[in-house]
């Protein structure tokens, strides 16, 4: 029985509206007993938040099925030296870092960690750049530049800090294979028996390809059939939407 890693936006939901058939697909996977990770680069919501979001659209899955870039960032940092972090982000990210034993501080931090936040400001940029220039390691939850309606995302918030310091962050989220390995560890799964389902060739499918997973592209979101030929790698399977998937 295959492990399933499934993206949210563009695969299961558009904004908060159900993509027709995706509820039946997910409910079938849960009933079959396939180990399931619903994976998102967005670090602002907790597993409970995401459970409520999908539940409101008619998709009912246990809270422990959700895995975010905030969780993966905390997992990554557990294996690094240092326990103090300056964080630009929302409560879900600081929650995961607290749970991993980190102190959130603006006094000599070991790390500068950036995630999505609407409260981004000049002082945050200034402090982050100072700390990184003084040797703090630069970590970002994901490289996405924007979300729906061109709302600024993590990669955009990192850009001025990168320009000031000349240093790029380590991006934990897709297309990094780190978040895939972290998600697999979450369910004690292995890459050779795992399928990733996503709507974006440059994040979901590239991450799966780099991590050695079987890949399924659905064209209900970002990438369309014409986009496949723009990349040097290929998805293993292509379907119009999650409801059409019949191979797992």
UniProtKB/TrEMBL annotation:
<protein>
    <submittedName>
        <fullName>HAD-IIA family hydrolase</fullName>
    </submittedName>
</protein>
<dbReference type="Pfam" id="PF13242">
    <property type="entry name" value="Hydrolase_like"/>
</dbReference>
<dbReference type="InterPro" id="IPR023214">
    <property type="entry name" value="HAD_sf"/>
</dbReference>
<dbReference type="InterPro" id="IPR036412">
    <property type="entry name" value="HAD-like_sf"/>
</dbReference>
<dbReference type="GO" id="GO:0016787">
    <property type="term" value="F:hydrolase activity"/>
</dbReference>
<dbReference type="InterPro" id="IPR006357">
    <property type="entry name" value="HAD-SF_hydro_IIA"/>
</dbReference>
<dbReference type="Pfam" id="PF13344">
    <property type="entry name" value="Hydrolase_6"/>
</dbReference>
<keyword id="KW-0378">Hydrolase</keyword>
């Amino acid at each position: 029985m295959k492990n399933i890693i499934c993206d949210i936006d563009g695969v299961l939901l558009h904004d908060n509206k159900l993509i027709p058939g995706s509820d039946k697909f997910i409910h079938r996977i849960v009933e079959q007993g396939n180990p399931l990770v619903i994976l998102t680069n967005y670090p602002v919501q907790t597993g409970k938040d995401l459970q409520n979001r999908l539940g409101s659209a008619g998709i009912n899955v246990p809270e422990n099925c959700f895995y975010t870039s905030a969780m993966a960032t905390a997992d990554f940092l557990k294996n690094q030296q240092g326990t103090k972090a300056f964080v630009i982000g929302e409560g879900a990210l600081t929650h995961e870092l607290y749970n991993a034993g980190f102190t959130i501080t603006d006094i000599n931090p070991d790390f500068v960690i950036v995630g999505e936040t609407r409260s981004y400001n000049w002082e945050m940029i200034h402090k982050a750049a100072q700390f990184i220039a003084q040797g703090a390691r630069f970590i970002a939850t994901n490289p996405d530049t924007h979300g729906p309606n061109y709302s600024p995302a993590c990669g955009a918030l990192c850009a001025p800090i990168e320009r000031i310091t000349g240093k790029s962050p380590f991006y934990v989220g897709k297309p990094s294979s780190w978040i895939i390995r972290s998600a697999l560890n979450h369910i004690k799964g292995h890459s050779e028996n795992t399928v990733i389902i996503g709507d974006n060739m440059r994040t979901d499918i590239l991450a799966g390809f780099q991590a050695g997973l079987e890949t399924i592209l659905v064209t209900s979101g970002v990438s369309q059939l014409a986009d496949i030929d723009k990349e040097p790698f290929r998805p293993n399977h292509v379907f119009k939407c999650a409801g059409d998937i019949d191979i797992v």
